[in-house]
Structures are given as structure tokens and as C-alpha cells.
Amino acid sequence: MDAAFDKELADNYGIKFHDESLLDEAFTQASFVNEHPGHHLRFYERIEFLGDAVYELVVSEYIFKRYPELPQGQLTRLRAAMVNEQSFSSFARECHFDRYIRLGHGEEKANARNRDSLLCDIFESFIGAVYLDQGMQPVIRFCEKVIFPKLDAGWFDEFFDHKTELQEKAQVNGPVAIEYHLLDENGPENHRRFKISVTIDGKEYGVGTGHSKKNAEQGAAKQALKYFK
Amino acid sequence: MDAAFDKELADNYGIKFHDESLLDEAFTQASFVNEHPGHHLRFYERIEFLGDAVYELVVSEYIFKRYPELPQGQLTRLRAAMVNEQSFSSFARECHFDRYIRLGHGEEKANARNRDSLLCDIFESFIGAVYLDQGMQPVIRFCEKVIFPKLDAGWFDEFFDHKTELQEKAQVNGPVAIEYHLLDENGPENHRRFKISVTIDGKEYGVGTGHSKKNAEQGAAKQALKYFK
Questions:
Q1: B189 belongs to the catalytic site
Q2: Is B8 on the interface with A (CB under 8 A)?
Q3: Distance (Å, whole) CA A120 – CA A85
Q4: Which residues of B are annotated as part of the binding site?
Q5: Across chain B, what does the average pLDDT equal?
């Protein structure tokens, strides 16, 4: 593999491969193998298969432990947000994986290097290669550096359903009345702004604003949830 | 948890929980929790979420290493066969998990204890509980005892596509002609039996029989694959 890439992996993520051929395999597309017959090269797909399962467990365990009260349905939604093509391809670009993929000429010309679906595959095969070479801990450290901070940065916020969570949390000890009230709306027609409060048994617990009622309600519910942590 | 169950787990699988409350949680349905308000019981769904990812990785790694030449598509199909409701519910019954689920009265009356979908959930939550309590190794040992031998016993054979595998293996060093030939068919109309051979570049590599041409071809391909291991 490329020495510049080895240096990036070591400097940025503390990862140094024992068996470099795994890294080669993880970054090699079938089109490259086809252009080098007789070299017995392997391409990334099998390692990607494994990496997919490794990453899913790392993410599942992290959010399971980080959100000890989050119900299964929301854990599943959050995991889906963290395990999807769009997320993967931006993680891969952030780590410069696009620079080091080995492609055949046709794929290179077709700009496959910047194709989300390929970057997504390569992200998973990278995870698989690290796991095969060094086990689970370096994968977890990589995710702690690259992926998990994005939770705090709000990358996956839209997948949290704060209203559902509030309903579940507030009713742990029996039914209560949760109501949303439109307090204000203003601004031009195409850029309206809503302000909405949420009350539980008549007492106000949170206020949220947004360009849609739905977003304002989610904001209010998010604020109210602070009382139930 | 039930002492008989503890004994079964210890005797049959060498599993002894450090934190029994995890096992309780894994075997408790929401209906039971609802009938015991104020006990702060937890039900299995969150642990099931984690167990699902744990089991998927254990199976993925096992088949990845066991079949080093199987292409990604077939690994994915095989994993899907090993990670599905029908498989899970029969594993759960084999381990007597159905006996130890904690249900509410309504669900008990509705015979939920024997419902495949519930047994499937409980199988995953059991895996999740073992993992949380003791890490990956005991889960692997459990699978080595309960799940993996079923591969050899042919449980998932129908998901192997031997013809595709043969095509890929035989053409590693360039294109070859793979042809299937009907050698014989006999038996009554509703119970016909076919005998089919497969040739590669004109030389016979395998013969298979079956009650459909498709099955006979798969059998022939399976036999031919022995030359490519």
C-alpha cells in the first residue's frame, strides 16, 4: 500500500498494519484485479462483508451503552442513521480513503473514485481489514475518533424522535397528558418561524422553535427530556 | 431466573451468569413488566437490539473464515439463512428457551410462548445478555455448540448456490465452457427423477440426481467443486 497512506493511518488513528496485504485487499476494486491477471490479487468485497458486521456491532454497543434508556425502536433508527451509504461515504472522504483505492482504468475514467457507493464499500472493507489484522479494540478507537464525536455534533439528530422518547419517559409511572401549544408564528410565508411549547399535565417543560411545526415540537420535546435524565 | 434454567445453561453450554439480572431482562416480555408495576423490571427489547448485532458478527466471521473462497454474494446469502426467524426459533426451542420466558397472563393465554417471532426475539436477547455479561468468547462457544454444526448437517444447504460458485471458481484463470447434460430421467410423472452431469471444457466433473432438474444440476455442481478446493 501507499507509504503516504500508511503514514496517515499511523499519525491520525494510531493504526499500523501487521499484514499489509489485508489493507491492499480492502482498497482494491475488482476492475483493478481484472487488469492484473496472474497476480492473484484479491478485491475488497469479502472483507467488506465482514467489516459491515464489525461496524454494526461497534455502533450498536456504543449507542446501547451511551443511551441506557433509549427504547429499541429509537436505537434501531439511530443505528440506521449511522450505518448508511451517505454517512459512510463522508467518513471515507474525511479519512482520504478516496485517494488510495486501486481501480482499473475504465473505472478511473468513469470517476468511480468519487462514487458514494464505492466509498461506502471501501469504508466497510477498511473496518474489516483493521478487525482481521488487529481485532476489535483498534476499530473501536477509530470509531471513537472519527464517528462517535459526530453524534455530539448533531449529525444524526434528525433521526432522534424526541417526541416519542418524551412520551415513553414521562409515562414510566403511569399515564400523563402531554400537549403541544403553538405560542407564536411569524416571518414571511416561505420562511415562517414557529414557536411551540410542550406541557405535561398542564405544566410547561420546554419550548422549541423551527421553520416547521414538527421541528419546533421536536425542539420543545428535546428540552423537556432534560427533566427525565 | 429459574434454577433449572441456570443448570441447563451451565451443564449444556458452560454458561454461568455473573449478573443474573441480565438473563432476567433477556427473558422478560413487556407484558410481564406491565403486570408488575413498581418493580422496575426491564424487558428484553434493548438487549435483543444488541444481541442481533453480536450474533451477526459471530456468524459473519465464522463463515468468512470457514469458506475462504466463497464470494461476497454467497456469504451474504448464507448469513441471511443463518440469521432469520425460522432458524432462530428452532434454535430457541432446542435450547428450551420457550420454557423460561416471563409473560403476562394475556400473552400466556394466547400461547405467545410458542410464537416463532417471540422465540426469535428471545434467542437474540439471550445472545445479547451473554455478550454483556461475559464478552464475545462465550457467545462463540455457544454458537460452536448449537449453530455451526448445523452447517455440516446441511440445514442451510439450499442457500448455497453451487452452480454460481462453480462458475466463479472454474473461471479464475480465464473463461471455460461449463455445460449441464441430462443423462437420464425416470420414475412416475409426479415423482420424476433426473440425473444430470456437468462438464468443463468437455470433461465430466460431476453428476447429480434430484426430483427437479435444478436440484440435479446443483448436485452435479457441488460434486464438481471438489476439484477446485
A1: no
A2: no
A3: 5
A4: 48, 121, 124
A5: 90
Are B134 and B174 in the same domain? no
Please classify residue B177 by burial: count the beta carbons closer than 10 Å to its beta carbon, then call 0-12 exposed, 13-18 middle and 19+ buried.
Answer: exposed
Total of domains in chain B: 2
In this model, does residue A173 exceed pLDDT 90?
no
Tens of pLDDT, residues B162-207: 887 788 788 877 788 999 999 999 988 778 889 999 999 999 999 9
Percent of chain A with pLDDT over 90: 60
Give me the residue from A45, A61, A70 closest to B71, CB to CB.
A45
Q: How far apart are CA B176 and CA B219, in angstroms?
A: 20
- Given this model, what pLDDT does residue A191 score? 80
What CATH number did the domain enclosing A109 receive? 1.10.1520.10
Which value does ipTM take for this structure? 0.75
Structure confidence at residue B6 as a pLDDT band (50, 70, 90): very high
Alpha-carbon gap, residue B95 to B145, rounded angstroms: 11
- Residue length of chain B: 229
Cα separation of the two ends of chain A: 48
Verify that A132 and A151 share a domain, yes or no. yes
Q: Please give the pLDDT value at position B159.
A: 67
Output the nine-digit C-alpha cell for A35.
487488469
- Alpha-carbon gap: A192 to the closest alpha carbon of chain B (Å): 39
State the number of CA atoms in the 13 A half-sphere of A190 facing the CB: 0
Check whether residue A170 and residue A149 sit in a common domain: no
Q: What is the CATH classification number for the domain harbouring B195?
A: 3.30.160.20
Q: Please indicate whether, in this complex, the C-beta atoms of B60 and A50 are within 8 angstroms of each other.
A: yes
Task: Classify each residue of A87-112 as buried b or exposed e, where b means 16 or more C-beta atoms within 10 Å of its C-beta.
Answer: bbbbbbeebebbebbbbbeebeeeeb
A179 C-beta neighbours (distance < 10 Å), count: 11
In this structure, the answer to whether residues B124 and B172 fall within a common structural domain is no
Select from B134, B158, B182 the last residue of a domain: B158
**Residue type present at position A105:** H
- Residue in chain A closest to B64 (alpha carbons) equals A50
